[in-house]
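hey all, quick one before standup. I had two proteins in the batch that finished overnight and I want to keep them in one place so we stop losing track of which output belongs to which input. First protein below, input sequence then structure tokens straight from the run.
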Amino acid sequence: MKALRACSPGDTIWCQMRERGECDFAGAYCMVQLLRDAAELLTPRVLDLNEIPEHDGAVFIEYKRGDEDWALYVYEDGPFFKFNMVACGGVMLPLEDYGIEWRAWTGRPTPEQRWQS
């Protein structure tokens, strides 16, 4: 994310990240790596349970039964995660059911990535 915010397309002979010693790539290769990193960041993936509290931004909640919704993570409350759901208000989801009945994604998964009902 740091490189995505700092780099801009164009002349890659001079790079402020490399100048500060924060990038080891030389020349145009860094732009290729930057695009690879950006694609990885933008590809939806299932969050590990311990990543949910640290995730920055909205998460896509997928339920085994086929329901789905966008949510903003609120907080962990004992054996539950409490989410502020975009469509239906608050909901508490049991931690013990994570990966079994529900899971959180970094973005909307493709139909091929979702649980097959």
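OK second protein, same deal, sequence then tokens:
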Amino acid sequence: MKESEIRRLISEGDQRSYNSRLERLRFLLSIERQKPFPISALVSEYYEEARLCWYFGAFISTIVMVQLSFEELFRAHYRAAKGVGGELNSGKKVDNASFFDLIEEAKNDKWISLDEANLLHNFRKNIRDPYVHVKDIQIANGEKADLRKPNFGTQYFKIKSLKIKDPEIKKLIRFDVEAEAKESIRLLVSSLPEISRRSGGI
């Protein structure tokens, strides 16, 4: 492909996506506070990439990067607090702890509030899990499929929701991937800086 054709494709893509990027940037700037906060280099990269994914409309990537930002914030804190090879109070090694374990440890240590823990668990279970822990559609004893539980089918509908007109399917998916990414980025920029300030960046 010629250089001029590549440039034309980029220009056309920029024009098509301009309005939606503008709206996402407006939203991001409306909820973001510009006060500095202490975080490790890796958390800083995850945080910035989550924001970029949102801006460019990479919605599933936004959700995953939000989770990585929080998980690494907690893990970096406990690496510093517990030392090399350290263990959480639960007995799990810091490096082997799951996102669930890290949220629980932070809650039990009163580093995060019960409300913050609940928000993070809701994000983990209801927004992140359906995209990173893909499940089959569950059918038991010849009964109808339970489509209320996250599975590859509801995932598909969430991703393609703008093209779906059936009201029953719309009701089933409740939130599309863009709405979930929006909620994720709101959680990130409103909570991560505040949580990190409490720890002094460790």
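Flagging for whoever picks this up: The first helix runs from residue 3 to 31. The mean pLDDT is 84.
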